[in-house]
Design brief:
This protein is of the alpha+beta class and 110 residues long. It has a domain of 68 residues: 2-Layer Sandwich (Alpha-Beta Plaits). It is built from 3 helices and 4 strands; from the N terminus they run H-E-H-E-E-H-E. Strands 2-3-1-4 form a 4-stranded antiparallel β-sheet, with helices on one face. The chain is globular.
Length: 110
């Protein structure tokens, strides 16, 4: 049983993603025309299928990489669901360069 005791972190597959320790997948929101039932979620690799307020449907969740994203768009095209918009959400965007903005309030002009 000692032939297979390699630990997964010894393989240098992607050193950049291992540094942060968080999921490297990007979060996407795909808005499509028309209403999709929530059961479509399984068909879209477990992404969230949420009904929009304007008769559209939002498919959202983590997408591993560009090829996975193109695979999703291919699925939409195959069944003829019109794509309205595609946005990449970055969960850690609000925390960037907001701390340095408090020193800009020192310009007092009487």
């Amino acid at each position: 049983m000692s032939t297979d005791d390699r630990s997964p972190d010894t393989s240098p597959t992607n050193p950049a993603s291992a540094a942060g320790g968080h999921d490297p997948a990007h979060h996407y929101e795909i808005r499509v025309q028309g209403r999709l039932a929530p059961r479509w979620s399984a068909w879209f690799d477990g992404l969230d299928v949420t009904a929009g307020e304007d008769g559209s449907t939002v498919i959202s969740g983590p997408v591993a990489d560009q090829s996975a994203l193109h695979g999703l768009l291919q699925k939409l095209r195959d069944v003829g669901i019109p794509l309205l918009s595609l946005t990449q959400a970055s969960p850690d965007a609000p925390t960037t360069t907001t701390k340095g903005s408090d020193h800009e309030h020192h310009h007092h002009h009487p």
